[in-house]
Amino acid sequence: MMINKKAVLVLQDGTILYGRGFGASTTKVGELVFNTSMTGYQEAITDPSYGGQILLMTYPLIGNYGINKKNKWDSNYSWYESSKVQVEGFAIRELSDVTCHVESNSDISKFLEESGVPGISDIDTRYLVRHIRNHGVMPAVLAVYEETIDTKKLLDELKFNYSSIDFVEKVTTKKPLIFGEKNKQTVVLMDYGVKMNIVRELEARGLRVVVLPSFSKFEDIEKYEPKGIVLSNGPGDPAILTDAHKTIKQLITKDYPLMGICLGHQLLAHAFGGKTYKMKFGHRGGNHPVLNKSTGKISITTQNHGFAADEKSLPKDVEITHVNVNDNTIEGMKHRSKDVFSVQYHPESCPGPRDSKYLFDQFVKILK
Questions:
Q1: Which of 132, 153, 260, 273 could potentially form a cystine with 264 if both were Cys, beta carbons 3.0 to 4.6 Å apart?
Q2: Closest by alpha carbon to 232, among 254, 201, 272, 186?
Q3: Are residues 216 and 360 in the same domain?
Q4: Which residue out of 262, 283, 288, 350 is catalytically annotated?
C-alpha cells in the first residue's frame, strides 16, 4: 500500500499537524473527536453517529486486517454499520502497509478514496488526544493533497458550528424499511442515524422491525400498530431536534413501551422535560465501565456520544438506573410507572464488548 499523498490537519485553535495522506485527495471540515477502540475501524467509520466529525483513533496501528466489502450492510453478519462511510475524515498514527484477514477484500485507503473521504497518518495522535482532553473537541479541517496547500487559508475559512447543524436529517432513511417481514410482533425503530446491528439484534429476537425516518410523526408510527418503539443512536445536538421531542412525548403519553439508545436516550430526556449538555470531549470507544445501580454490577460498554442528560433537569418520575464509573454521568434511566427506559451507551456493540445485549431481551419482555 504505497501512498505518496500529503496531508494536513488544522484545528480551530491554530494547531497544525502535517502527515501522510491516504484516502481521497480532498478537503473536509468537521468536529475532531477521538475513539479508544483497538479494533472495529470499519464499523466505526460507517457509524452514522460520526456524521459531521473527523475521527481520530487512539490505537496506533490501523488497517492491518483490511476492509470487508462483500457483506451488504443489511446482512446478518457484516462489518458495515450503515451503507456507506459516515465520517468526514480519518486521523491515525500508522497506516498498515500489509492487510491480512480471510474475509478482507480491500484496504482502508481505497475504501475511503471511493467514498470521497480524506485520511491522515504519521501524526502524533497521543499529543492530539491530550490536546482534545485539555481543550475539548473542536472544529478542524483535514486536507489531503499532492503538491502544496495554504494552511492559513484553511484556518481562515474554518467556519463550523457542530451544534447548529441537523445531522440526523442528513443520515436518516428517507422511506420506511422493513426487516424480519415474516415475524409476527412489530416494533418501530426510529432512525436518527441507526447502527445496523440494532436492527440485527431486534430481528434475531423474532421481531418485525419497521425502520422509519426521523421526521415521521406520531400518526405515521401509529399506523404500523407497533408493540413497542426503539429510539436509535445518531449524530448531532439533541436539543435542536424539537420535532422528535414532541413525537416521543406523544408516544410516552400513549403508553407505548419505549427503549432509547444513545441519541435516543438524550431525546427521551428532552421528551421527559429535561435537558442535555455538551461534554468536553465525550465518550467514544469500547472500554467504558458502567454501573448498574439495581444490581451493583459493572459492564464494559461501547460508547459514542458527545452530549449527556442533565440529571438535575429530569422530573421525579424518572429514575437513574446506570452511571458511568469514570465521571458519574448518566448512562441509563427509566420511567417509574411506564415501560420506558434508555441507555446512553450501545448494547448492540459493533465494535465492542457484548456485556449489555441483555437490554434487548429486557425490551422484548415489556412489549404489549
A1: 260
A2: 201
A3: yes
A4: 262
Are residue 194 and residue 335 in the same domain, yes or no? Answer: yes
Q: Looking at the whole model, is its pTM more than 0.85? A: yes
One domain for residues 142 and 176? no
Instruction: Convert the pLDDT of each residue in 110-120 to its tens digit.
Output: 999 999 999 99
- Domain end point (choices 142, 160, 178): 160
Task: For residue 335, report the phi and psi dihedrals to the nearest 5 degrees.
Answer: -80, 140
Place of cell 454521568: 329
Q: What is the mean pLDDT of residues 221-232?
A: 98
Per-residue pLDDT reduced to its tens digit, 142-199: 999 999 999 999 999 999 999 999 999 999 999 999 999 999 999 999 999 999 999 9
CA 303 from chain centre, in angstroms, equals 8
Q: What is the mean pLDDT of the chain?
A: 96
Residues 143 and 177 grouped into a single domain = no
Q: Are 328 and 215 in contact (CB under 8 A)?
A: no
Question: What is the domain range of residue 288?
Answer: 167-365
Domain match, 333 and 207 both: yes
Q: Which of 81, 245, 346, 350 is catalytic?
A: 346
346 catalytically annotated = yes
Active site residue 288: no
Say if residue 205 is in the same domain as residue 255: yes
Domain of residue 73, CATH code = 3.50.30.20
262 carries an active-site annotation: yes
Q: How many domains does the chain have?
A: 2
Q: What is the dihedral of CA 44, 45, 51, 57, to 10 degrees?
A: 70
Rounded distance, CA 63 to CA 365, Å?
40
Give the model's pLDDT for residue 3.
67
Instruction: Please give the C-alpha separations between residue 147 and each of 4, 5, 63, 238, 280, in angstroms, as whole numbers.
Output: 10, 9, 25, 41, 36
Contact 81, 115 (CB under 8 A): no
> For the residues 257-268, what does the mean pLDDT come to?
98
